[in-house]
Structure formats: structure tokens, C-alpha cells
Amino acid sequence: MPTKEEKKRIELLQGTLDLLILRTLLLGSAHGHAIAKAIEFRSDEVLQVEQGSLYPALHRLIKRGWISVEDGTSENNRRAKFYRLTRKGRRQLAVETSKWDKLAHAIGRILRPAEEEGKP
Amino acid sequence: MRRRKRMLEDLDQAIREHIDRETQDNIARGMPPEEARYAAVRKFGNVTRVREETREVWSFPRFEELLQDIRYGLRLLRISPGFTCVAILTLALGIGANTAIYTLIDAVMLRMLPVKNPQELVSLNLAGPLDTQFPRDVDGDFSTEFPYPAFVQMREHNQVLSALFAFKDTGRLSVLVNGNAEIVHGQLVTSNYFSALGVRAAQGRDFAPDEDAAGAESVAIVSYGYWQSHFGGEASVLGRQILVNGAPVTIIGVAAPEFFGLQAGSAVDLYMTMTMQPQIMPHVAEDPGTSAFAATDVWWIQLMGRLKPGVTAEQARANLDVIYRPAVLQGLRPEAGSGPLIPPALELVPAGGGLSGLRNTFSKPLAILMIVVGIVLLIACVNMANLLLVRSSARAKEIAVRLSLGASRGRLIRQLLLESVLLSAFGGLLGLVFAYWGCNALVAMMQHANNPLSIDVHPDLNVLAFTAVACIVTGILFGLTPALRATRVELTPALKQTAATLRTTRDKIYTTKTLVVAQVAFSVVLLFCAGLFVWTLMNLETMNVGFSRDNLLLFGVSPNNGGYKGRRYADLCREIQSRVAQLPGVKSATSSLILLLSGNMWLGSIKVPGYSARPNENTSVSVLPVGDGFLSTMGIPLLQGRDLSPRDDESAPKVALVNETLARKYWPNENPLGRHFTLRNVDMEVVGIVADAKYTSLRRDIPPTVYYPYVQQMDSMPQMHFEMRTAGDASALISSVRQVVASIDNRLPLFDVRTQTQQIDDLLYQERLFAKLVGFFATLALALVCVGLYGVMSYSVARRTSEIGIRMALGANRSNVLNMVLRGAFLQVGIGLCIGTPLAILCGRYLAHQLYGVGRFDPLVLGGATVVLSVCALLAGFLPAHRAASIEPVEALRSE
Asked: C-alpha B150: how far from its chain's center?
């Protein structure tokens, strides 16, 4: 039985997780748990990330060379893997962001043509 | 791969840390520790799935599956070594035979010359229209040779070639090195030969540009092979002086190791500049006072050029043609009454693969052999397919289990195909070994004394690629049907039964039977072809050649090369003839310019008073200058008139013998004795008529032939051959003959020393090659067919054990059962024969040119092939049939 709170949350679209990870890492390197938290927090807890699915996505990005991984120490002095955006990843983020904007804009126009026109 | 392993190890740690952090966060929010951990794990999701998905990111699933399949396939092959050995051996024979023939095709026909940018090379050839003022060769085709002045004109004035060079094969040369007289193959070349080809010198230097000018010092470049074999590869060879046909020549360089000359298969040992022509090839310009370099009507050098970048062969031809025509017409006047002279047209032929001589000789035979080995491979494939089909019924249960556990059919087919490709890959590896042996054996078989072959049969990338493709195609070809069949299983019955009692679907046995029919059809084609070739060889070997071929020893010398001319030449030959005739064991001896049935001939145009030739009629006759006692020694019967005698000498009137064919053609209704004719502007009187005898080759019809005493016309006699009729084994006399000639002049090397029988064998080498090879492959195919038939029959008998048991229990006797089983076998063979016979006749038509004295669909040969195949099939089918007839009905019924 889904609770009322859970109903408000939205499942991520296929493929958008990669974009969110890249965007999150733009602010600086982070470990996996921090990335998950950041996505949830910055979307006002609307976007629900199944935390485990973060890891295949991270590895996919590493394999493509968009992020790199290094050993580091977290805020509470624990060892952790830190993920960092590479230069290639930064370029890719720009590409993906503009693609996303176009997609969102296009879908928006199809869904609400009247409102679009009605605006002054 | 290592990176992948590290990444996956790190993943587990990262997941643990992640859940720990989430737990800490939850505790911080006030959850009890146990619940906090539970919530964290729930939020993370399925750890195993995360691991799998991450693993997938890093893996190459297809590649891994492939490795897995290969490992599994190898294990299966190890489990049944008997099957594996038979399969690999079958395939190795099939693929090896194909690789061997392909290696030869590659070496002779496909490979480019080892020179710089070979695709730019063109050779200059001549083509019709025919005009008697211009030279032709034996077959009436134009030669590919040009007059020297035309070459100079074209070299100086063309705008299309970056280089044009000339060369001329000298044939055999006598070379004196370290006091030993030896025969080498030489070539006269222009000084730009090596530089135009882009062939570097391995030692020493190339010819200098002025070294082919008149009066230049005689210099030579030796081939790498000759340098290694005769000078031990020592640098001291440079500057050495050798005697070539008695003329001193200085060696100045060694050609690059990979360069063998311009024609694959016939290697040149010695390259000399054109200036050597008067010493080495004086017969090129025979008339006194003419120079081969100035005469516009002596056609003797071959030409090759290198196209400038961007120039097409057609543009080059047009440009050269304008220079060539006036150059060859210069100084020629048309014969009275005939139209203007039309020189043969110039043609440019791509020469990147070298000159085409060997290619022309071997292209058809090699194509035929390639088809033959292709058929053998097909039969091997069919056999393999049958083996696999039978085997797949044993594996039906395994396959059913895998299918029911969810393996996709595609995946299983892929795996089965991989197994068959694995088999053919092993077969191919072994086949490469077979091919290497086979090739060397083949080249040895293709050798014959007149034309020593040097073919490089080391497998190159081209050949390896061919074998690899052959392996894969073969594997898929024979594996596909069994794989498709094997995976079409009805699961429930297959799972219920044990392998021993498993019934296969009816159409599986139909498939194997169809395959046997195909094998029979292929095999009857091969047997028929083999029969045709064997028959041809037998016809040629036993034909009446017009003279007695047994106990005849032959040898040749080149008195010219030893400096003998005119009278001294004749005296030398007389002395050699009389001295060898006195050897014990020699009945009589004679001599002739050319040996009979050596593949060589000498032609002359004849004019007979009172005989008017039709326009364009071929008035050339075969000419043979002979010594004393030619007819008696050779055993050619004299029909009318008298034999030549020692009294027909230099001062006597010129006389000749003619053969029956000539007499019939030119004096159809008269007695030719005492008549005169003109041959090469020499008037001769016919004093005798002799029986027809073969001259050049066994296949060619006996040409009109003139025999005259060589002493009466001593010009243009490059060499002399001697024939000795012996009492016993002719070859036993060889060493004493050598001693005799050496005691007369030890600078005269002997060549063509062999018996007449050996010489005819050499002439028939191609026929023998075909008979042997096609016979071998046909036998191989027959054996494969028998094995296949035996396998299928055994399988079908085993399958029908209980049926036969019931039949016998109901009163069928042994011969009924025997009949029933054999009838099945014969049905397959019969259908195969019906399909194969028209195919065989079709092949026979394609072979017509290679055959002699046997029809293209000779019923005797076709019947023979059918009988041989039927008898073998009967034997192969009899064992299983006998086993079926020996079934004890009670046992058979109980086995169900």
C-alpha cells in the first residue's frame, strides 16, 4: 500500500538519472550516498531515486569516461569512493542539458498549447 | 579485463558504505538501530540486481558466451575422440586439397611481380591482321617480339611511359665457372631493365645507362638464387669473369632475392646487356652483314613499359601506335600484286603479374583442378553433415533438456554451428600441413625437363585467408542442416525416452538419404572425369608415333656455344656421331637438329612448282635437318626412292626426303620422286618418300615434313641432337656417352640427356598430372561416399531392428531382408546416378580440349564409372544388410 507521501513522488524517466548525476557532480566531487541525497534534496524530495540503481549508472558513466573515481575521506572521516566530473563529462552535460531543454519545451508545447498562446 | 575486476570489487565496498551511511542518517532521525538498517536496505533496493546490472556494464556478454561455447565444444570433441579424428581427417583432406590448388593458383596467376608499383607495368603485344611479311609463331599467332629500331623510336619519342625496356630470353647458355661447364637460363636486357622495374641490387651495382651501347664491356648481373647456389653467396663474385658460350663476361651485381624474372615459374639465372647478342644469339640476325640492332625486319626483342601516373593503357597504346607503325614499315616493300602492308596491331597488356606464359599454360588445368577439389570438399561436407545428423540423435535428449530449461533455439543453433566450425578449423589447420606437402609434390609433378619450374609455394596471407574462409564456410555448410534438424525437437517424447531407444523423426532419415544421393551424383562426375583423363593418357602413351620409341638414348650439344662454325661444326657432329655409335651396346647412332617429340619444331614455307596455294593457305611445313642413318636408327620406314646417304654432302646437289602427308598434299596424282621444291629459297630434289611420323607433339596431326641432310645447309644451327639405338637399357649408357663427348671437347656441356621414353613422358606430364590427380581425388571421393553410405545404412538398419524382427517372425527369410535393405541402398545410388550422369556429360564437354581419342561422353567410360560406383556402393551397403539379415527375431522383439 503506497502511503500518501510516496504518491507525491515521481519515478525517474529512463536515462535521466545519468543527466542528474552529471549535474550534481558539476558542483564538486561527491560519494555515492551524497549524490543520492543531493538529487532527492534538490528536487524537493519529488524525484525518487532507488538508491541502488545509482551504482550501475555511475559505472556506466565511468566506462564512458564522463566521470572518474578516486579514493577519499568523507566529512566524518570515513574512507569513501569519490566521483568527479571529467572534462569530457562536462561537455557531455552541456549537450545533454540542451537536449533535455528542447525535449521539455517541445513536450510542454504539445501538452499545453492554449496556455502558451494565452500568455501575454 | 583487470580494470573490470577491480571496479566490481570496489562496488561491494561502496554498497556496504552506502547502506551504513543511510543507516546512520536514519538513526540520526531517531529510528531505532535495527529499524534504521532495515529501512536503509529497503531504500537501496535489490543488492544482487544492482550487482548484476553493474557487472553487465563492464562485460562483453556475446564474447563471453562465445568463449563459453568454445570451451563446451572443445570438451565435446575430447569426449568422442573417434568421431573427432574421423571428422578432422575428412575435413583436412578436403580443405588441404583446396588450399594446395589455391596456393598454386595464387603463385602462378594472382601474385604480382615483386617490383615497384607492378600495376603500372604493361607489356607490348602484337595482334592481327595476319600478313605473311610479319613474323608468326608455330600456331600462326603473332609473336610478342619487336624489331630493335622500333623499340628505340618508341623509347625516344613516346609521351606516355616513364620507362620502356626490352629483354630477350636466351634459352640455354653454356657457362664455364671454375672450370665446370654448366647450362644456365639467361636474358638479354637493356641497361634500364632493373631501374625501370625498381628492382635493387642485393650486391654490387645495376647496369650503367651506357653499358648497352655498342662497344661497351660485357657485364652481367646474376640472380640471387644463382649467386647462392654457384658462388656460395660470397661478395667476391663481383668482378669475377665467367665464360658465357665462350665469351668473357664480368659479373657486376646480384639482383634482389625476391626477383625471379618477369615470368612466374621460370627463373632467369643470368642477366646480360643487349650488346652480347652477337656472341650469344647470333642466329637472331642470320644473314651476314645484318645487325639485329639496325634491321627493321628482325623481330626479336620483347618490350615492357611503365605507364606515367594518370595515363591509361588505351591512351598509351594510341600514342605508341603512331610511332610504332612507320618504324616497322620502314624499308619494307609490299610484294608485287598484293595490297599495302598492314603491320600487326599494337596491344598493351597489364603486366603487373608478370608475363603470361605460365598463366596461359596452367590457367585451364588449375581451374579444372580447383573444381575437382571443390567437389571433393563438397562430398566431405556431405559426409560430415551425415555424421553430425546421426550423432545429433544421440544428443537429442541433451538438446531437449536445454530447450525446456529455456535456451533459445537460436542460441543452440549458434552453439552447434560453432562446434562444426571448430571441427573445420582443426581440419583446416591440419589441411594447411597437407597442403604444404601436397603443393611441393604438385610442383615436382609439374616439372618437366624442357621447362624447369620454380614456383614459390610458401603460403602467404592470401592463402591463409582463403583457408580461413574455406574453414568457416565449410563448417557452416555441413553444420547448418544438422543444427536446424537437431533443434527441431518435440520436447515431451524426447525427454521421456532414453538415448538408446530414441526414435528420430522420419524426415531425418530422409535428409541423410538425400545427402547420400548428392554424394553419389558428385562422385560419379569425378569418376567420369578421372576415367576420361586416364583413357586420354593411355591413348597417348600407346599410340603409334611412326618410329620406334624403345631403347633410344638422346642427348644434345651446342657446338655454336663452343665456337664451332661451318665446316668445323659439321666435322664435330660427325665425329661425335661416329664415336658414340662405336660404344658397346649401341646398335646405331644418328643426329638431328631437333629431337622428335620434344615439343620443339622448325618451320619453313615451301614453294612447289605447279602447286598454286589458295590465298592465306598455310604453306609452312615442318623441317628437320638430319644426319646419316636417321631413318634406319629411328625406325621410320622408307616407302619409295632412296635413303639419304653420306654422299649427299656439302658439294652434292641438295636433296630431301618428304613424308607421305607432304607428298599427298603437293603431288596428289604424281610420283614426287625427282621433283623439286623451294624451301627458304633453297632448291631441293625429292629423293625419297617416308612413312608419316609424329614430330612435335603427340596430339598434333602429323604435319607435312621435310628431312634433309644438315651438312648441305649449315647456317642457323644453334644446336645438335644425337639419337642412339641401344641393344639393352638405354639409360645405362649415359655416363659413357658423357665421357666420349668430354674426350672430344670438355667445354661442351650435354643437355636433354634422356631416353625417348622419358622424353615422351615429359611431353605427357600434364596428361599424367591430370590422370593422377583427378584419379586420386575421385578415389578419395569414392571412399568418402562408401563411408557415408555405410553409415547411413547401418543407422537405418539399427533403427529398423524391431521392424525387421517382426517381418522375420511373420515368415520373411534372410534373403527377403537382405533384398529389402539393399533395395533401399540401390534406390539412393540409382537416383544419384540419374542426377550425376547428365552433370558428368556437362563436365566432359568442358574438358574436351584436354582429351585425346576419347569422346566427351564416352559411353564406355561413363558405364565404367557407373559400374565402379555401384560395386563399391554394393559392398558398403552389404555389411549393414547382412547384419540386418542375421537378426534373431526373438532378440529383436525383446529389445523393444
From this structure: 36
CB atoms within 10 A of CB B113: 23
ipTM over 0.90: no
Residues of B with CB under 8 A from a CB of A: 7, 10-11, 13-15, 17-18, 21-22, 25, 43-47, 49-50, 53-54, 56-58
Contact A52 B45 (CB under 8 A): yes
List, for residues B530-562, the tens digit of each pLDDT value: 899 899 899 988 888 999 988 999 998 888 777
The residue-averaged pLDDT of A79-101 equals 88
Give the range of the structural domain holding residue B497, as residue numbers without chain letter: 362-541+766-894
Same domain for B366 and B320, yes or no, is: no
CB contact under 8 A, B14 and A55: yes
Q: Of the given ranges (B25-29, B138-142, B320-324, B389-393), which has the lowest mean pLDDT?
A: B138-142
Predicted pLDDT of residue B635: 93
Tell me how far apart the 2 most distant CA atoms of chain A are, in Å.
55
Instruction: Determine whether the interchain pair B17/A51 forms a contact, defined as Cβ–Cβ distance below 8 Å.
Output: no
Most B CBs within 10 A among A5, A59, A77, hence the mutation to make, goes to: A59
Q: Which residue has the higher pLDDT, B446 or B823?
A: B823
How far does the CA of residue B49 sit from the closest CA of chain A (Å)?
Answer: 9
Structural domain contains residue B66: no
Whether B602 and B499 map to the same domain: the answer is no
Q: Does B277 lie in the same domain as B241?
A: yes
Q: Is the pTM of this model over 0.90?
A: no
A54 vs A34, B11, B49, B65, CA distance in Å?
Answer: 11, 11, 12, 27
- Report the C-alpha gap between B576 and B769 in whole angstroms: 36
**Topology of the domain covering A4-114:** Arc Repressor Mutant, subunit A (1.10.10)
Q: In a 10 Å sphere around its CB, with 0-12 CB exposed, 13-18 middle and 19+ buried, how is residue A74 labelled?
A: middle
Number of domain units in chain B:
4
